[in-house]
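Re: the request from the purification team.
They wanted to know what the chain is likely to look like in 3D before they choose a buffer screen. I agreed to run a prediction and write the result into the notebook, where they can find it.
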Amino acid sequence: MKTDVSKIETNKRLGIGLLGYGTVGKGLETLLEATASDAFFIAKILRRATKANRHDMVEDIDSLLKDPSVDIVVEVLGGIEPARSYVLAALKAKKAVVTANKALINRHGDELDACAKANGVALRFSAAVGGGIPYLATLLEVKRHTQIQAIGGILNGTSNFMLDKMEREQCAFEEALRAAQQLGYAEADPSADILGTDSLNKIRLSGVVAFDRWIEFESIPCEGIAYLQAEDIQFIQNLGYHIRLFATMCRSEDGIQAYVEPQLFNVEDAEASILANHNIAWFVDSMGERQALIGQGAGGLPTAGNILRDLMQIKEKTGGMLPEGHTKLVANNTKAIHQYLIRSSKNLKSGYLEALSEVKWIQGNRIYRITKAMDVSRIHALVQTLRATEPIFFAGIQTKETL
C-alpha cells in the first residue's frame, strides 16, 4: 500500500507532537520558532511526569496522540523502547512520523515502515545520519538518476571531535571524551560513539537507502576508537597521517563490501581536513565521480535542521524513505584489501602477526607494525583473537585505490 500523503493539509499550520525534550528537541523548538513558525508549531511535548512543567507538556503518549492539534509526531527520545512502541502508536493513529533514531530504524525499520504504509502516512528519518547534512535525502535523489556505486565517510561527530582534539592539543583520550560530553556531543554512556556502533548504524541505514539492501549487522566488521591512546596519535602524526573513524559500503562483483574502522589519511585527503564535530558523507556515482557533503555531525540545531527538512517534505506530500522491495544481504569483504597499522606491546608473542608485518618500529614497550595488504574481515578477526591477551590498537591505511 502506498503512502497516502494527501492526509496532510499543505496550507495549514501543522502541529508537532514532540517525543523527547533533550538537546535535539529543544533545538527543533528553537529552529521552528526562528525559521518556520508560519508552517509548524509545537503542539504537545511528551516528558516524564517530574519534568512536565509547561502547559503544552504531557506525561503519556495517549494524551499527545489524541490531541487534535497534533498532525505530525517527531521522535527524539533515542533508544529502542519506549520509542518503538510510541512510534507504532503514532502511525496507527494515522500521524506521520519523523525520527532521528538510527538505532530504532536499523532494528525495526521494516516493521515501522509497513505500519506507516498500512495507515497511509509517512515515516521519515533524514536526521538519523549526518546530523545537519542532508545525506539520506541526497542519496534518494541521486539514485533516481544513476546507480550509486559506493558510500562512506566520517559519520560520527563525537569521535571526530575527540580525534581532532587529541591531534591538536596532544591530550589524553579521557580528556577529549570529557570535553565532548561537556559540549553535549557525547552521552553520559559514550559506548555507541567510541565503539563504532553509531557509525555502523549510520552506514547500514545509508546502505539500504543507497543500495536497496539491508546488510546483516553481524557481517559488518566494526571497530571504534576505544583502544586509541595519546601516544598512538603522536606516532601517527610523526608518520604524516591523520586518524579518523571511517565507515563505508560499496558494490563489488561479489556483492556489497561494508565495514567501520579507524583509518589513517594523508594530509591532502578530504577526510583529514574534517575537524571538530563535523562529518563528511560522500557517494560515488555510476561514472566513478565522488561527491561529498560536509557539515556538523552532532549537536541539537544541526540535527534539528534535518528534522525540519523532513517536516517540509511531509508538508509537501512526499512519502517515506525506505525503498520498496528491499532485501537482506551478507557483507562480502574479500575484495576490501589494504594495509594496517597495529600497536601492541613487546610482551605479545605472535608468529602470525610477525609474518604479516612489513615494517616495524619499537618505542619503549610498544611495537608498531605496518602489515601487508589484507582483507578487512581477516584483520578484524585476528585483532579480536589477540585482544584476549592485551588491548591492541589498529587502524587501516587509506590509499586512493581504497577510497
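For the purification team: The chain has two domains: 5-128, 144-294+336-403.
Please add any questions underneath this entry.
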